[in-house]
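Dissemination and training. As part of the outreach component of the grant, students in the summer workshop were shown how a complex can be specified as a set of sequence lines and then modelled as a single object. The example used during the hands-on session is reproduced here so that future cohorts can follow it. Participants entered these lines:
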Amino acid sequence: MDPSADNRIVSLEHMAIGYAPEKVLLSEINLSLLPGEMVALVGRNGTGKSTLLRSILGFLPVLGGECLLFGAPADSFDLRRRARVVSYVSSRVPAMPSMSVRELVSLGRMPHTGWAGRQGARDREAVWKAMGELGMEDFADRKVDQLSDGERHRAMIARAMAQETVLMVLDEPTAFLDIPNKYELIRTLGRFRDNGRSVIFSTHDLETAWLWADKFWVIHGSKIVEGAPEDLGIMHVFEHLFADSDITFDPSERRFMPHFVPRGTICLEGEEPLVMYWTRTALERLGYRIDKHSGRATIRVTGRQGEYGWQWITDREEKFFPDIYSLARFLIQAE
Amino acid sequence: MKSPSRSPLIFVLLVLLLVLLFLLDFRLGSIRITFPEMLAHLRGTQLLSHEQLIILKSFRLPRLVTALLAGAALPVCGLQMQTLFRNPLAGPYVLGISSGASFGAAVVVMSVGAGGMVAGWGLALSSWVGAGLVMVLLLVVSFRIRDVMTILILGIMFSSGLNAIISIMQYFSNASALKSFIIWSMGSLGNVTGSQLLIMSGAVIPVLVFTLFYPKMLNGMMLGEEYAMSMGIRVRRSRIIIFATTSILAGTITAFCGPIGFIGIAVPHITRFLLVQTDHRILLPATMITGMVIMLFSDIVSQLPGTDRMLPINAVTSLIGIPVVIWLVILNRKTASF
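and obtained this result:
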């Protein structure tokens, strides 16, 4: 069925996972990952994202079916051989002794060094390169406990880079990062992928994921499906993802919206696109449906170039507001 | 700030200090004998008196060797426990090893009675068996339990349980047995002689040498067990090696010397602070040397030079260790932090 079946990096066939044989969390998992692919693992809290990642990494036993790495059963690899092909970054930075960033990143060379862990020129080069990838050269001699959370997390990823594996598995790598750091991280992982390596990362951040991931693994209910994010969009997977909550998926905008308490229809008029856009956002947030022609009231945006005003007009009265905030305060109180 | 260049210098200084304290501790005591005098005796150039020889063979050398062994062994246990549990307060006794040893000692002292047993084999042997039983239990537990923190809690609970039993035994024992047990529990470096010393060295030295061969495993454990696995460390096996060596080292030392407090917790911190290092390739040998230095120093202090009285070694090591830990943890949180 898959023409490139032989070079699959990960191939899960009828796999069952869970923390104990009597507590199977997910079964009949059929997924695959090719070289140079970035996969985003998506699903609600507690659906088994971390369990799946841990099972692939060998931290948890596979409870059924097959987990194949490079076509061979994953448990046929001893830990050291596995560590040369798969590296891991957890969602939380672990407690660690006060070491320098260089020492931390050097730990990644462990599967490649001898019994004493002595590092050669090749190892030092890999450590330096990994710190470079994450922009951490200047931090080399800084102690990890003097870094911010984001920087420490980056150092942990540099450590995984230094491991020089074909596959990197990350559990919610973007969870604690601000927006620029998030994009920077995904870009770094993208470079890793562009070198023919593969990435699996779990995330709740769909908006970021579908800008970068080649493929989604989506857990919903007791099933897990894979495909390009767009394929999954066609299959209505995202609509179903949060079906039991009051979040709805808006396919045209590729965004999730909470169900706002409906307040009725309102008519919006005005010229300036930017101001119109933000006014509409505010009205939607308050639960209004926007209509061009009719509504219980009309909001007219006036003015131009930084000097704007908002008019609220009904049959009986008319009010003027200098900003969206005071308009919104009024609408909330009026209803 | 840069550390690699600093380690060799500190190493040399520590070794010099070790030699100095050894020579100083060597000449302390009711009868003056110096190390050069012993060397001269061995060369045959200037013989020691019969009395001096007896003191040397049955008291002074055994005490020094015991101090060196205990000083090297307990901190290595502490270092391993701190790394495995990633907890700066872990020490050689967190797993209940010393409670096991105390239990063994208490059984002998309070059931058989003190008398000749205290100085002889019975006490050491039974507390060794006590420590050994705790070790077996730990290994069984660690095969069945995945989470290392659960094992830590079990160890602490187990040790508290044993201590409770010991206090019941103390409550019902007579005054002389109670005193013998309390004196044992204050620790002593001076009771290990002759074949006991041989047994103790035979158990401790090979294990100490063995620990020097797995720094990589300990380095891998610094980020926790999942990361260790992801970097190719066999976690189960490592945990068993760490438990077994810690039990043998701490159990043996405690069996022969009684519990010796704080050295095991404080020395790894002092070593990390001195060397600004987290690499166990350096930390393991450095911890041994620092431990021996501090143990010799404690031994010198405990003999109250200039008097003919002695302090219990457990009290001295604690009094030296506690301020160091406080200083490191409170005033120097960065380096002591784990």
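Chain A has a mean pLDDT of 88. Students were then asked to discuss how this feature might be tested experimentally.
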